[in-house]
Specification:
heterodimer, A: four-stranded antiparallel β-sheet, 0% helix, globular, B: five-stranded antiparallel β-sheet
C-alpha cells in the first residue's frame, strides 16, 4: 500500500497519560499535515511540516501537543497529560506541491478515546 | 464566525435525482477551493478542485462565486454510492492550512 499510513488506528487511554501517534506519508511527498476531527465537524488544521521543518502550528496545538518529523519522512504527534477533550480522530495528510492545485492525501486516522 | 460554513443536511434524494448545495467562506483572500468526500468513519478524499470558471467532472459540477464568497456542488443522476459527507475546503494560495467546513451529508436512496 503506497498511501498514507497511521499507527495505531485506535488508542484508548486514561486521562493524564501520554500518547504518541505515528504517520508515514507517501514516500515522495515533502509536505505533511496533522489535523484533528471531532464528531460532526470537519478536520481542523493542527500543524504542517515541509521536509523536517515545522512551519506552522495552530493555536489549537497547546503546550501539551508536540509534533516532530526528524528526517523529513515519518512524523509523530505526542499528546502529554491527555484530557477528555483530546478525544478525537487525528488525521495525517501529505502532499507534493507543484503547479496547479495540490491534493492532500489523508491517512485512515488514529481514533483517540480518553477515559 | 467559522471560516467555512455548510448546511449540514441531510439531503435525502432518490437515485437519479439531482442534488445541489453550497458553502460560504469568510476569508476573501482565499485562493484554493476544493470539495472533499468523506465516507462514514473514513478519511477525507479529494473529490474535485474548484476553479474560478467553474468545472465539471462527470456527474459533478462545482462553481465558485468570489463576489458572494460561496462555492457550490451539484451532483447529477445520483447513485447510491454518492451517499457520503461532502466537505467544502478553502485555503490560501498554497495548499497548507486548509479550512474545512463541517460537511453536508447526502443520502441517496433506492
Amino acid at each position: 500500500d503506497t498511501g498514507v499510513s497511521q499507527d495505531p488506528r485506535h488508542k484508548i487511554t486514561k486521562r493524564g497519560q501520554n500518547v504518541t501517534f505515528r504517520c508515514d506519508p507517501i514516500s515522495e511527498h515533502n509536505r505533511l499535515y496533522w489535523y484533528r476531527q471531532t464528531l460532526g465537524q470537519g478536520p481542523e488544521f493542527l500543524t504542517y511540516f515541509q521536509n523536517e521543518a515545522q512551519l506552522e502550528k495552530s493555536r489549537l496545538l497547546s503546550d501539551r501537543f508536540s509534533a516532530e518529523r526528524p528526517k523529513g519522512s515519518f512524523s509523530t504527534l505526542e499528546i502529554q497529560r491527555t484530557e477528555q477533550g483530546d478525544s478525537a480522530m487525528y488525521l495525517c495528510a501529505s502532499s507534493l506541491p507543484g503547479t496547479g492545485s495540490y491534493e492532500q492525501y489523508f491517512g485512515p486516522g488514529t481514533r483517540l478515546t480518553v477515559t | 464566525r467559522k471560516e467555512v460554513e455548510q448546511d449540514p443536511g441531510p439531503f435525502n434524494v432518490p437515485e437519479g435525482a439531482t442534488v445541489a448545495f453550497n458553502c460560504t467562506y469568510s476569508n476573501s483572500a482565499s485562493q484554493s477551493f476544493f470539495w472533499y468526500r468523506q465516507d462514514c468513519r473514513k478519511e477525507p478524499k479529494l473529490l474535485m478542485s474548484v476553479y474560478s470558471s467553474g468545472n465539471e467532472d462527470g456527474r459533478f459540477t462545482a462553481q465558485l462565486n468570489r463576489a458572494s464568497q460561496y462555492i457550490s456542488l451539484l451532483i447529477r443522476d445520483s447513485k447510491l454510492s454518492d451517499s457520503a459527507t461532502y466537505l467544502c475546503v478553502v485555503g490560501p494560495y498554497n495548499d497548507y492550512k486548509l479550512s474545512f467546513g463541517a460537511g453536508t451529508t447526502v443520502t441517496v436512496r433506492a
